[in-house]
Amino acid sequence: MEVERNVREVSVAEKSRRASECADAAGEPKGTALAPAGKHARAARASGAQAAANPGVLPAAEAPRAAHRAHVDAERHHHHTHAAGSHHPGGHHLLSVEHLSVSFTLYDPAAPFFSAPRVESRVINDLSLSVHAGEILAVVGASGSGKTLLADAILGLYEPNSRVTGTIWFDGARQDAAGLQALRGHGISLVPQSVTNLDPLMRVGRQIVGNARGEERRRRTERMRELMAAYGLPPEIERLYPHELSGGMARRVLLLCALIDQPRLIVADEPTPGLDLDLAVRAVSDLRRFADEGGGVLLITHDIELALRVADRVAVFRDGAVVEETARENFDAPELLEHPFSRALWHAMPEHDFDDAPAC
Amino acid sequence: MSLQACDITFAYDGAQPLYQGLSLDVEPGERVALAAPSGAGKTTLCRILAGYVEPQAGRVLVDGAPLVPLARRRGAVARTSQPVQLLAQHPEQAFDPRLRVGKSLREGVAGLPGAVRAEAEAALAAYAGAGAGRPGDSDGACGPAGPAGPAAAAAARPCTALLERFGVRPAWLTRFPHELSGGELMRCAMVRALLARPRYLIADESTAMLDALTQAQLWRALIAEADARGLGLVLVSHAPALVSRVATRVVEL
Description:
Chain A is an alpha/beta fold. Chain A is 34% helix and 20% strand.
């Protein structure tokens, strides 16, 4: 029944999945299947719907480790649709955030200074999203709308006056605050917004290796050298200070600081501030590669054009909630988008109508 | 009658000159986009045109009269507002962090003649007062919030109309810059620049950090205002789609 109602989304994902399966069979890397899948996604509506209605064509999923039933690649669940690279190894999402709310208690700014009562101001309101292994999910929203608080919540960073409710699952296991804190740097890593997050007084090599001793330190140094070679950083930068690096190198160092912990999920919070689109796409290509190797990326950005260039799926963030989480291909035409605000965003892009109609 | 840059030469200390003998002419009512790769000196040219930086050679003429660089404005000239206003890329760096936004906006009208200035200041104060009286509408409401009660009489004033057209909410005027988002501050920065009644406006990557919807809203408002006043506009943008939407002419540096 749900399948029937959402024939369109299912068909896009189903077609994409089949395209990637074909690619697998042909021995091609999965990344190359993305483009044809997107191109023909809309054309495949009818045939895809039939296939999706018949569960027999879907791969058998393993028993669910999560409390809810197993997820399969192409179906619609948790209010989102899938892209070609969206997989559910083990029958669950890599990261699943459900009904997340973040609110802050503060003194009522409108009341007289000495008698102000405490009020609760809700910044994130019933937000749900999921990141699959092997994909980049871009969360797109206006600046100042609370996107960074989402990253903080996933990393288990909470302000003393904040109240966070909701459920976060990581790799099929339900997490609490302590669990998320334990995962920080051991499964989930952050790539921060600004290169000023590097310590200006510490050599780059030491920053990447981090605080480790003995055998562990040797292992991490070895891994750092492998990573530096893999990401095109010359070995001599190990001895440099951050101000001696170019902007692009400093950004790679930030990424390496996250990769050294061998994370499964990277949360990247506005990783391309001030870069024009082509440079930004190049900066994000390292994240693309991480995703292609099976990791998951949550890319938080204000830039819808960047999101459409690099992400597999896009979550439209507005007023503290995700109004639509959908495959990038659905941004090819406004009628493929479900929510009026996503459509307003599409129409507002300079490539399209440059329309300023407020969507409320 | 135009904004002219004549034979501009500029180099930073110890570096190759960015340009030698560069000339540019912007007519009122025109929207000129500057196109060049990163590091070619687009932002520097914007700052020269707005009088923030002085070129080593050449001069800038505004409707025939030489532009007085900000650092050289003394006496009677210093009490008028600069006829070329610059909208910076990072609005958070364009506001005094220790002044409430309303007070920063008052700086926009500081250079106007006496009576007009008094009226504009009164309108700003009334607009902010309308926000203080209704704290509930500071968040959540969508679109420009109209003034009510004591400010109703002020609604007809051009200053108040401008604030409303750019969607500046009354409550923002009593906040500090760090309490507003980038998009909210850019709305205030555009209003402040327009309050100074410039003849030319320079927008240097002004909406690059904003989401697509806010970007479209602000450019629509800005173009409407520029057309109504016959303003000349210079813009710098890395986004080709935005340039082809906004600009009437593209100049390669």
